[in-house]
Amino acid sequence: GTLLFSSQLGEQRLVEVAPLLFRQVDGDAVVRFIEEDGEITGFLPSIPILVYERAGLTESPIVQFAFLIAGGLVFACCLVGAWLRRGRGLPETGAEHWAYLAMLATSAFWLLFVVQTTLSGLAAAEDYRQTLYDYPLPAFVFSLTLALVASLLSAASAAGLVPIWRAKSWPLLRRIRHTLLVLLAATTVLVLYDMNWLGYHYF
User: Fold this and answer.
1) Which of 59, 103, 159, 203 is most enclosed, with most CB atoms within 10 A?
2) Which of 2-6, 50-54, 125-129, 142-146 has the highest mean pLDDT?
3) Residue 117 neighbours by CB under 8 Å, 6+ apart
4) According to DSSP H, which parts of 58-160 are helical?
5) For the purposes of burial, counting CB atoms within 10 Å of the CB of 156, is it exposed (0-12), middle (13-18) or buried (19 or more)?
6) DSSP letter, residue 48
7) Contact 105, 148 (CB under 8 A)
């Protein structure tokens, strides 16, 4: 059989030369598929430093980035809601106020991360070859820095749940809403950890 292999670097037509082994029709590129328990789980391209594996639903980049975009919208709504509620002077303790400010900072940095990563990703996709040559791009490094700061702020927001639920000065609905935002921030940290996007591992 034959395969048409497409990537950002172009297209290659390959023909089977041995079981699970394909060679480029008009070149020397080869692709070897990986089989485990009778099922194809990935393949090895000609570039020896790369290994492609079949991703599960939660490992799919499309699903992961869709989650980040949705989370960014929620964090944006949090900031807009805080702006609309400014000046109301709801009763709260000093610890609750600092927990509130920590959540606002967390939302702001996660929103900045989502926007920065989206814009830099679109810019990098326009010239994939140049992106490889100039790697790592300053915009990518900035995105990783934003993620680290947002993760630290998420930990501070999580710690702020203790005085919020202990003092109970806030209405119950507000405490629940705040807790859900903290859980979203924590989930975002876990998603980025799974994507290996926390820290400077790529250079």
Assistant:
1) 103
2) 142-146
3) 68, 143
4) 61-84, 94-126, 128-133, 138-159
5) middle
6) T
7) no
**Residue 55: predicted pLDDT:** 67
SS3 label, residue 134: coil
- Give the predicted TM-score (pTM) of the model: 0.74
Residue from 155, 76, 160, 141 nearest 110 by CA: 76
Q: Are strands 52-53 and 39-44 parallel, antiparallel or unpaired?
A: antiparallel
Predicted local distance difference test score (pLDDT) of residue 129: 67
- The answer to whether the beta carbons of residues 5 and 14 sit under 8 Å apart is yes
Q: Which of 112, 105, 169 has the alpha carbon at shortest distance from 145?
A: 112
Q: Who's near 15: CB < 8 A, 6+ residues apart?
A: 1, 2, 3, 22, 23, 25
